[in-house]
Amino acid sequence: MRKLHYILIFLGFALLFPISAKQNQKSETPSTYRVTKGDSWFGIARKFKVSPETLAKLNGRTTSENLYERELLRIPKGNEKLTFAPESVLKEKPSNPLDRKERVLKKFSELTYDPHKGIQFQRGVSSLVRASLPGKVVHVDYMDGYENFVILEHQNGLYSVYGNLERIQVTEGQQVKSKDRLGILAKDKGLYFQVNQNKQNLNPEKILEGGI
């Protein structure tokens, strides 16, 4: 079920539905949370509407440390509870996912008759694919038309997708830094690169040029 979640994010479907105000009024924030497979600091923080840094600090950790399945986390409540704090806003500019800047063959498009949820780079001299931002590897898979692909989860509901890989060099659950190696491109295809924020597809070219 978790894999289906990330595949649908990759395809651009709206999965992360906000809880209604009515539901929020009736439910109380639990004091603890048991980590399950595939969880990340950012995902858990978003679920309980706190900043990832607040959640990690309360548990004596940092967001760069890995979580462990079945680990019990304290959840901020009362005065500890914060909405996404300014410190959780992405401060660094995303880096190019390729060693060199390659020409974009197919651009991002929101046109209903010709949608394209990401960008397709030309296959040039660059073959090494790197993480554009620090985050967690949440899904590794294969799909016809996109070959092997990797999905990273970042802060503030942001996801990046890297497709047309011949060889993947990361594993699910792994924390990566910006410019860390993700894999090697297929010999006959350029990189497919997609960026989502929650259920919205963003234009990767604009993000690479000006940040988020």
From TrEMBL:
GO terms for molecular function: metalloendopeptidase activity. Residues 31-75 form the LysM domain. Gene3D superfamilies: Glucose Permease (Domain IIA), LysM domain. Keywords: Signal. NCBIfam families: LIC_10271_M23 (NF047755). Pfam families: LysM (PF01476), Peptidase_M23 (PF01551). The keyword Signal applies. It comes from the Bacteria. Coiled coil: none annotated. It comes from Leptospira brenneri. This is LysM peptidoglycan-binding domain-containing protein.
